[in-house]
Write a structure and sequence with these properties.
The chain is an alpha+beta fold. Helix content is 15%, strand content 21%. It has two helices and six strands; from the N terminus they run E-E-H-E-H-E-E-E. The strands form three sheets. Strands 1-2 form a two-stranded antiparallel sheet. The longest helix is centred in the middle third of the chain and has 8 residues. The chain is globular and about 35 Å long.
Length: 92
């Protein structure tokens, strides 16, 4: 997702639940004190990345300091202008 200035925002969710396929619905929890909460509340679109065993470093990076999550060149803007990380298992 993007913040109000169009900058990428992301986080690591340790659990997610699929609620349905048509329409596609998913559920995850984020604390209201999280650095991503203000952007998530206003987002129309989000990209959900599923991570595999080869993505441990990415999961740790997105769980750490929010100001450093998008400094590397391991992502690009994708559909809907959302940040998409390279080398993940899948993106929804």
């Amino acid at each position: 997702m993007l913040d109000e200035l169009g900058q990428p925002v992301g986080f690591t969710a340790t659990s997610m639940t699929s609620l349905g396929a048509n329409p596609p619905l998913a559920s995850f929890n984020v604390a209201s004190g999280s650095s991503t909460w203000p952007s998530l509340c206003k987002a129309t679109w989000v990209a959900i990345h599923t991570l595999g065993e080869n993505n441990q470093a990415l999961a740790e990076k997105l769980a750490a300091d929010h100001t450093k999550r998008f400094l590397d060149d391991d992502w690009n803007f994708g559909p809907k202008g959302l940040p998409i990380f390279k080398g993940v298992t899948s993106v929804l």
